[in-house]
Amino acid sequence: MATRQTEILVGQILEEEVTLTFDEVSGACAVARERIVELVEQGLLEPRAGADQRLGGDALRRARIALRLQRDLGVNAAGASLVVELLERIELLEARLRGRQ
Amino acid sequence: MEFKDYYAIMGVPREATAEQIKQAYRKLARKYHPDVSKEAEAEQRFKEVGEAYEVLRDPEKRAAYDQLGQGPRAGEEFRPPPDWGSGFEFRGASGAGGGDEGFAFEGDPSEFFETLFGRAGFGAAGAQAHHGHGRARNRGEDHHARVVIDLDATLEGATRTLTLRVPAMGEDGRPHLRDRTLNVRIPRGIQAGQHIRLAGQGSQSGGEGKPGDLYLEVQFAPHRLYRPEGRDLLLDLPVAPWEAALGATVTVPTPAGAVELKIPADSRAGTRLRLKGRGLPANPPGDLYAMLQIALPPADSPGAREAYRALATALPFDPRASFGA
Predict the structure, then answer these.
(1) 3 state DSSP class of B263
(2) Are B54 and B61 in contact, with CB atoms under 8 Å apart?
C-alpha cells in the first residue's frame, strides 16, 4: 500500500462513470444479494436506465448507510430508506444554508 | 486499565430491566449513530454505547459484569479479580441470550471489554451474518475516506496531494493510525458528495484475491467566488444601484474565463441571471448563476451625501410601502 510521491492516481467518478451489478454491491457491503434487492424494491436504489440489473455507483454509498441503519437502529428496509432520503435532503438544505451565510 | 461503568454509559440504574436497557440503547443509538448524528464525537460515543449494550443485553455477561461491583475508586487501576470467569459459561454466539435480533456491534472493543469477555464475545453472531460471504472474503477490503479539496481542482482537473489517516496493525498487534499520502488526479467536473474510485488502493486481500478499492468522498473548501450546488455554481454579483436601475453590461468571472453579462434595466437584488454551461465542467456542464446584490456607494464625503439628498428629492420612494403602516 506504500505509494511513491511521484505516482499520480487516476480514478473514476463513482456516480457517473461506474455501474455495478447487484452482486458487486452486495459483495462490497458483505451482505446477501436479497438485502440489496430489498432496497431496490423500496426505490432507494434505482437500476440505471437502459442497463437492466445494473446500479449506479452511488448505490453503494446509499446501500451502506441503509444497511448500517438497519443493523444498528433496528429499523427495517423501508424505514432505513426513508432515513437515507431525509439525510440527503438535510445535507442539501444545509449546503444551501452555508452558501447564504 | 480503565474500568467501564456500562450502566452510567447507558444512563440506566443498575437494577434496570432488559426492556429498559433496550429502550435506552435504541435512544442513544439514534442520538449518536455516526450516519445520523451531529453530536461531537458521535462515533466514539456510539462505540461506547454499543459495547455497553453488548454486555448489558446479555443476561450471562451482565451477571458476570455485575459481580465486579461498582469498579475501583476514582484514580485506581482496574484489575479483574483472580477468580474472574469461573462459574460462568459464555456462549460464543451472543444472539443466544440477548433476544435482540439484528444487533451486531462492529468495531474494536475496549481493552476492558476484551479482558473480561475476549474478542469472541464481541457481536459474534451478528458479525458472522454480515461478513459470512466467501465472495467478499476473496477480495481485500474497500476503504473509504472523505477529502476536502479546493474547487479549483475540479475546475481544472488538477492533481492534488491528499493525506489520509489509515488504521494499520502495529507491531504490538494493536491498530494505530498512520498517515498515507496520495497524489490524486481530481476528475474535472466532480461534484461535492460524489466519490472518486481508486481501483486497487484498498486493503490487500489475505489470499489470492484482488486488493480492495479506495473511495474518496469529495467535499469542497469554501471558494473565494463560487458556491457549488450540484453541477451549478452560484456567484454573488455586486452591482451599483444605477447599474441595476438603468441596466448595464458588466464583466463577470467564470471558471472558463471572464464573460460580459448584460444586467437588464430595473433589476432587483436577489435576481438570478443564468450563464448556461458556465458552471462545473461536468458532462453535461452545469450553469453559473449570478445573484445580483445591490451595493450602495458609501456616503462618506460631502459630494456623496449631496448626491443621495438629490436622489431623495427627485424620487418619491417608500421602500416600506408594503408594510401598510
Answers:
(1) strand
(2) yes
Helix locations, B81-224, DSSP H: 95-98, 111-117, 124-131, 134-137, 151-156
* Chain B closest-CA separation from residue A72 CA (Å): 6
The CA-atom distances, in angstroms, between A2 and each of A7, B93, B171, B202, B203 are 11, 38, 17, 11, 11
Record the pTM.
0.65
Closest alpha carbon within chain B to A24:
B136
**Which cell numbers hold the place of B125?**
453472531
Please give the grid coordinates belonging to residue B296. Answer: 450602495
Cβ atoms B52, B122 nearer than 8 A: no
Q: Name which of A9, A23, A65 to mutate to probe chain B: the one with the most chain B Cβ atoms within 10 A of its Cβ.
A: A9
Q: Measure the CA–CA gap between B30 and B33, rounded to whole angstroms.
A: 5
CB contact under 8 A, B136 and A28: yes
Q: Which of B100, B196, B204 sits opposite A13 (nearest CB)?
A: B196
Strands B159-169 and A19-21: unpaired
Q: Could you report the predicted ipTM of this complex, rounded to two decimals?
A: 0.75
Alpha helices in chain A (DSSP H): 14-17, 22-29, 33-41, 59-73, 77-100
Q: Which residue of B has its CA nearest to A75?
A: B102
Closest chain A C-alpha to B229 CA, distance in angstroms: 8
Query: For the segment B253-268, what is each residue's pLDDT rounded down to a tens digit?
Result: 998 899 999 999 999 9
pLDDT in tens, A18-35: 888 999 899 888 899 999
